[in-house]
Amino acid sequence: MSLFITVCFALLLDALFKEPRRFHPLVGFGRIANAIETRLNRPTAGRAAGRGAGIVAWCLAVLPWVGLFSGLAWGLDSLIADQPVLKVLAGGVVLYLAIGWQSLIEHGLAVARPLQQNDIPAARAAVGRIVSRDTSDLAPPAIAAAATESMLENGADAVFAAIFWFAVLGIPGVVGYRLCNTLDAMWGYKNTRFLHFGWAAARMDDVLNFIPARLTALAYVLVGQTALGWKAWRDQAGQWKSPNAGPVMAAGAGAINTALGGGAQYHGEWQVRPLLGPEKGNTPSAASVQQACQLVNRALLLWCAVLLIGGGLF
User: Fold this and answer.
1) Domain limits, the chain
2) Contact status, residue 233 vs residue 247, Cβ threshold 8 Å
3) Is 123 exposed, middle or buried (0-12, 13-18, 19+ CB in 10 A)?
4) What is the pLDDT along the chain (314 residues), one digit of tens a residue?
5) Which of 37, 55, 58, 189 is 20 to 30 A distant from 258 in Cα terms?
């Protein structure tokens, strides 16, 4: 039961205060990670040397903080072992800083609103803040597709995986996951600079997201159009380049009956991507972005219900 209450408290903090605009711990961590990368990354190094440097950099960036928070969590647990309210407060604050539920929803709606008003330049600018593809010439359906895909995929990363690792390993687990996920966002690119150096960050993120991604996909299927979501997950997930984004995005696309995927421009290069969702599904639009946000919210309610029931059983 305490896990359910802690997660609800973290979500309440996120709903009330959103993501901290100033002094967010991840901003400071990003500066440290940049300093480590600047010192250790040599893009001209070969594959073995580049990957080795990336492994060392990942360990330097993540492990000290996991060790620190493990020690703090152990000490805190010893001090307030008989104070369940304080344990909920401490865990809830840390989890709140690790999730991005309301930030995710706000970014999605920031794309949907101008699309509804046919303000295409504003919609392009808004979607450009949440995706890595080129957005300057996107037509409205492509803008909506990019935003919808981002909502579905980042629902797993920004919300559900953080809750999963908090449930499994407590404060050290969610801290370790969030730092690892942040490094993947910073270093996990297959460009000249990070092709080898970012390999460790990308693989560690794949490992940590493996189970949460599939639990997220399952939640999308259960709270959406179940038959379409399950069929898309089964038939299309393995075709996607990411082993974790594939199940999440395919299941989500089916669950909202929207045709996603297909080719897109990334960093000046056209990438051919498989289709996601029903082939004859709805064309991406402002409505599909809103539906993706609603799907994330319904899936979150399902997760909370599971935590409540599980807390009552064990």
Assistant:
1) 2-313
2) yes
3) buried
4) 789 999 999 999 999 998 877 778 888 999 999 999 999 999 988 999 999 999 999 999 999 999 998 998 888 777 777 788 888 999 999 999 999 999 999 999 999 999 999 999 999 999 999 988 888 889 999 999 999 999 999 999 999 999 999 999 999 999 999 999 999 999 998 888 999 999 999 999 999 999 999 999 999 999 999 999 999 999 999 999 899 999 999 999 999 999 998 877 676 667 778 999 998 999 999 999 999 999 999 999 999 999 999 875 44
5) 189
